[in-house]
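Final report, Chapter 2: Outcomes

The project's central promise was a pipeline that accepts a single protein chain and returns its three-dimensional structure in a standardized token representation, suitable for archiving and comparison. That pipeline is now operational. To close this chapter, we reproduce one record exactly as it appears in the project archive, with the input sequence first and the structure output second.
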Amino acid sequence: MTARVASRPPGTAAGLRPARAPAGAGTVSPAGARIAPPASRELPPGFRVVLDPPARVRDAGCVLIGGSPLRLVTLSPRAQAVVAAWRHGRRADGPAARSVARALLDAGLAHPRPGPGGPSPEDVTIIVPVRDRPGSLARCLAALGPCRQVIVVDDASARPELTAQAARATGARVVYRAVNGGPAAARNTGLAHCRTPYVAFADSDCRPEPGWLTPLLAHFRDPAVGVAAPRVAADTGCGGWLARYERARSPLDLGAREGPVVPRSRIAYVPSAALVARREALGSGFAEELRTGEDVDLIWRVYTAGWQVRYEPAAVVRHEQRGRLADWARQRRGYGTSAAPLARRHPGQLPPAVLSPWSLAAWLLILRGRWIPAAGVTAAAAALLARRLPLRQRRAAESARMVLTGTALAGGQLASAVTRGWWPFALAAAACSRRARVAATAAFVLPPAVEYLRRRPALDPFRFTAAYLADDLAYSAGLWSGCIRGRTAAPLLPRLAVTRQRPARPARAAGPGRGPGPWSLRPGTNAGAAGSGRSVASEIPSHRSETTRQPHEMGS
């Protein structure tokens, strides 16, 4: 694999042949490469946070409930005072406040407001991989904004002189690859030429909105943040019914809510179509053997190494859409093919559904038409959970809310699994059973109807439903193809979440000598048994996102 830095492309009048790339320039395949953890996790003075809006405060400020996956956190009196100050808009700083902030950021119960003092665009190199899209590349380069340097990596385009022409108009540097290696290899080639402490990636079919780097770079005031990603929204300039569907349900658009990126949570991934990272947090870079899903793999390796990954929708990057139905379906099928290799590299992180025994039992009873026993199972789950919740007030109401929410989310996951992977089994069962036909019909009809009502797209419900099902079935075709080729069924197998718990006593206000330090981050543990680390909200499945899309369906 070779690359060359040049002012003109290979095959021009100069007759230059590509020179060998520097050692490690896009040649490292980091399948097992270790990423070093952050050197420090201590927040700097003046770093502020705000509570996640859906988080609930209970027991007069002693308990916080929220995050994704759901957590219950008990607070000591000192931490309660800090959180109360934040809730009422007052400033709280100092070592104790920053310790509480760190804990709540890690738990997904708070979001950062870093303030000034972070890196500037002059500390950033932007890498743009491209192949055969000179028009899109020119629009992308014109929208990038100020930075230290832009490196365009031409991944063996048919007419590299067009890449050079687009880059020359904005003063970008061009690196040519003699052999097409895919997005991961192209990004690694650019990464090898990066000399700044921060690097940004932007695909050539992306168009950042003005000032996109500023809110992303602010996150790096936190020394534990390794990657910050913008919202990748569909380009509003495209027309047609397929473009309108994409604007409502693009797999790259993770929505308007900020948050940490954690596997099997509300934000389980961020696409590398656009993101900013600390150079040191990327290790050797992307896994070049992955043609799709390479961004999921990198983000999860960064997270596993101990770095935080933040999703920041205040920064927006527009992404061009596939105009033709065949190209769009081929893209969705390609996303599905990445499931098997990702499941092999990250065992247990890609189940189509994560269910508690209670939720599974309730839905099996519903499928058999036994509604009253299903309600009894749900009520029993709520009663047992109430005994374990370390709450003094509203314990029954909170347990009922958790169990009902978990059961509803479990139903959504099961319906998604049917349309995105299990449909051959569902159709076989429907041929033999009336109840199975009803259940399969509900799985195909209800999710797009709920999504339509929630998003209100500029598209009639019939075409939206048709596009929704075509989206899922195209993805399913790639999923099955990847599983057969990789000889694995892991992406098709659900995961049963089983947690054994001892009953928890009601939470008590901590006093001198109680609790480990100024805060007690015990996610749903017995209030008197710090360190058990088991969630009392185990009946809530680890729902990956607000939609039913999988983390490995991203791409550009």
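Archive annotation: The first helix runs from residue 77 to 87.
This record, like all others produced under the grant, will remain available to the consortium after the project formally closes.
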